[in-house]
Design goal:
Chain A has two helices and five strands. By secondary structure, chain A is of the alpha+beta class. Classes of the chains: A alpha+beta, B mainly alpha.
């Protein structure tokens, strides 16, 4: 019966090793937008957002979408996802708290 | 020089061993990830925003490491390597706090103003982080011999704040990151060691006391 704590420990180590591997796929939202060659450019999204009153701090690709860190026209510091072809706003969150989610996403 | 006169003095290898095994060297090791992060940030290779994850994750790892040592000793009994770690537990705990403090500093730099910070303080992923850090503050401040002596029995009760701090750290990580996987992978060992300890305590309540080997009752 003294094996039980040891078995739990071994499991702990295994679980850590197994779960640590895919640590960096955050992807709150997935976009099915086809190959990147068909996407509109980052610059186009940034200038559109700036025109709309956003302040863009960082723009990157995540889960096949454009992910933007910045400030909304209303002044909220958020993380937002946009469709890379239509530039539709799909998801807005503040530190993980969902403020907006488009239908179907 | 004869062997007889040379022997009482530590050999260079022994000196190196005791240096590598010293507490200051352990502190130095704990500072290395932070130094690398800071160098990357000063260099411009790492954005301020991207300093948040590594500082926070390092803090959580050190906190978990510090909190594993006690229950591991309970599960495995006294072991040499656990004793070695036990002598370094304070260093692990205090550096967990220092990385958490760096995490806050980079958060403040990234946010840039108080209004933005106050605007999101109610977000579950944010207030949990603030409270976790607030709980760690008295722990770090009393992690010295003078405080241990002054507080006596209350010291241990105070240090139990590490448990709610760890829970809030887990929640902070989970909620701010929109995902449980990363946080859970880190906290799972702690949960499992606690389970193992609970199982062991349960066994020792059920089972009759063991007789030493070779002695028949």
């Amino acid at each position: 019966m003294t094996k039980l704590p040891l078995a739990a420990l071994a499991l702990a180590v295994a679980a850590t090793a197994g779960l640590s591997a895919p640590a960096h796929a955050t992807g709150a939202i997935k976009c099915d937008a086809g190959p990147q060659s068909g996407w509109k450019s980052r610059e186009a999204l940034e200038s559109k957002l700036t025109k709309d009153g956003w302040q863009v701090r960082k723009l990157k690709v995540d889960g096949g979408c454009y992910e933007v860190y910045g400030t909304t026209p209303e002044g909220d510091r958020v993380e937002a996802y946009f469709h890379p072809v239509t530039f539709e706003k799909l998801y807005v969150a503040r530190r993980g708290q969902v403020l907006f989610r488009a239908k179907g996403y | 020089m004869t062997i007889a006169t040379a022997f009482p003095y530590p050999t260079p290898v022994a000196k190196l061993r005791s240096l590598l095994n010293s507490l200051p060297f352990f502190w130095l090791l704990l500072a290395i990830p932070g130094a690398l992060m800071l160098a990357g940030w000063l260099d411009g290779a790492i954005d301020t925003m991207d300093m948040l994850h590594p500082t926070g994750e390092t803090s959580a790892r050190l906190m978990i490491a510090a909190m594993l040592i006690g229950p591991l000793t309970g599960v495995l009994g006294a072991r040499r390597w656990l004793g070695w770690l036990l002598r370094r537990r304070r260093a692990l705990g205090v550096s967990a706090f220092l990385y958490a403090l760096a995490h806050l500093v980079f958060y403040v730099i990234d946010m840039g103003n108080l209004d933005d910070m106050l605007a999101e303080i109610g977000a579950p992923g944010i207030w949990t982080g603030w409270v976790a850090l607030a709980l760690m503050l008295p722990l770090a401040c009393t992690s010295n011999n003078a405080a241990m002596r002054a507080l006596g029995a209350a010291w241990k009760r105070l240090q139990r704040l590490a448990y709610p701090a760890a829970l809030l750290t887990l929640l902070h990580w989970w909620w701010v990151h929109n995902g449980l996987a990363g946080a859970l992978a880190h906290f799972a060992p702690l949960a499992l060691v606690w389970l193992a300890l609970a199982a062991r305590r349960l066994q020792s309540v059920d089972a009759p006391p063991r007789t030493p080997k070779g002695i028949r009752p």
